[in-house]
Design a protein that fits this description.
single chain; alpha+beta; Alpha-Beta Plaits; Calcium-transporting ATPase, cytoplasmic transduction domain A; 5 domains; 7-stranded mixed sheet; 6-stranded antiparallel sheet; 26 strands
Amino acid sequence: MSGPGASFHGVVQNLTCGACALRLERQLAGLEGMRRVVVNATTHRLRAEYDRGVLSEAALIAAAARAGHPVQSAAQEGGPREPDLVIPLAVAGFGMANVMSFSVSVWAGIDMGPATRQAMHLASALLALGVTGFAGRVFFEPALRDLRRGRVSMDLPISLAILATLAASFLAPLGLAEEGYFDAVVSLIFLLLIGRVLDQKVRRQTLGAARNLQALVVGRFARLAPDGRLVDVSAADLQCGDRILVRPGQTVPVDGRLRSPGGRIDRSLITGESDAVAVAADDLILAGSKVLQRALEINVTAVGEAASVGQMAQMMRVFEDRKGRAQILADRFAATYAPMVIGGAIFGFALWFFVLDASLAEATMIAVAVLVVTCPCAAGLATPATVARATNQLLNQGVLVRSGRALEAFSRASHIVFDKTGTLTRPVQTVRRGLPTDVARAMTGLAANSAHPLSRALVGETRVDSITPAMEKPGEGLRGADGSALGSAEMFGLQVTGPVTASFFKSKSGDLYEVPFKEVLSNDTTDTVCHFQRAGVHLHIQSGDRDDVVQTIADEIGITSAQGNVKPVAKADFIDGLRGSPDTIVAMVGDGVNDAPALTAADVSVSFSDGSAISQDAADFIIIGESLAKLIPIFEVSRSCRRIIGQNLAFSTIYNLLSLPLALCGFITPFAAAILMASSSIAVMLNAQRIRS
């Protein structure tokens, strides 16, 4: 019998490739009480959902530790701990430079006696042993750890390549061969470490967006004490109800209401708008806004995870869970790739040593070249490097990406379904006169419960004296605990005609009032619609508003497929009906509670930061602010991301198809193989940087 649900978010250690992540996922998924578990090899993070009555957090952590991957709760850890590769890389570089100097003396054919040549080999051997023992641990330790648990990861073929080259090199000091390969050993380690450093850089890019947001809440600010004194405190010590003074140039670390008469702020980080905006007393100031010109006094209303920056960072973390289709395939491929590489190296050694009658050293070098040149670093970086770049570019435009799958899929969208109110239009209250003061206050107190655009427009800039407890029914309206109600005509059984949007309010005494609104197209609605029509995307409007109102808006912006009086479930059914084939991609754009079923049903979903929480939970992309035009960079970056992922994967495939036969034929030395492997990783990362927002 299942118990109450619980979730766990942790940081995983000892992940070196997609195969490790996939293996850990499968082991944890087999635990009794586990509902869902996702391990991301790129970000080293784990998220699990489980039955609290069957499985505990301690048991989950213990199971991961037994699998060789200690996990620490993300609440106690700021990010995944990665080995510091700077010192091993420096040691390998120092060793390579010195071993090369000894090797050049031998290669140059300088007249030297056997004793001198032997001394050169011994000096190279000592340096190579030191570099291998210190810098090579980056590869040896995880490979050995996996072997103890009966697993094979990509660190094993790399370790075998290093050790085989080192073993073959000792034939020269022992007098069994004229040439040593100590320069190849240290060069292999140095170049392989460069590839590992590049891999770390991609991980930091993927996590960088959320970390940059969280970094805004650090620093020290001036808090106003009750007696008027300014007290210097850390941002982490601020609490709701505090009054703080944020000086020009500082970034606001909390959400709050402005107490100063006015000022100007830069909201580019959280909304993407480049122009500074003027704010007045009692305006809501969001965390992440930069203060300009004069200091602002702010009354704190939300801190930490509850503030807008904390919520944005949490949304970015959710993105880590959702792997794109290309990344899922890459992880599965990695699970079988290492044995294939080792098998190819054994085949190359046997072919040259037993069939072609090569020496032991020559056959070993062939096997090493195969092990190194086929290391799938480029294939492993192809998707995460591109997705990380695309995610950060969209964040700079004021868009949060919550799904790698959707980032790849949106470029292939053939249909986009729009909600109307709050998405294509902004409601403006036109008539408020004639309402008794007590009725207007009661209506505003009820409307304050909802994030629906009509309710927000109804509240407007009015100060709400008291909020009436209420329940909201999607697609209809609000019912207050005191018997009052606010909602659509259908909620009250009324028939309304004419292209006018209206809400109706029933007071607790039973009196009914009509509240008409004028719907104004968002500033960028027409341009956005035209852009997607030129791109050949079919556009639709599905709205719960009256059909005549919906048709008026549709005619104004040139959308022919429009329907009103649509229930929330019917929107989802409409999206399902658009799928004529498995390749059809349907996107949904909405912001209300009634849009949640449709957002969930769509292949790609987009909501807004000021929309309802349930619509944000269902969305793959969240637009910060109200600008519908941000759909355009989402679409264009998605197209660029998909194209570049395809290019990177194609390049990786061609690279392996060409390099493996060349290595088997003896045309690629271990040193050249290491250069090719590192170069392929660099090429993939440079190609990913071509994404522009």
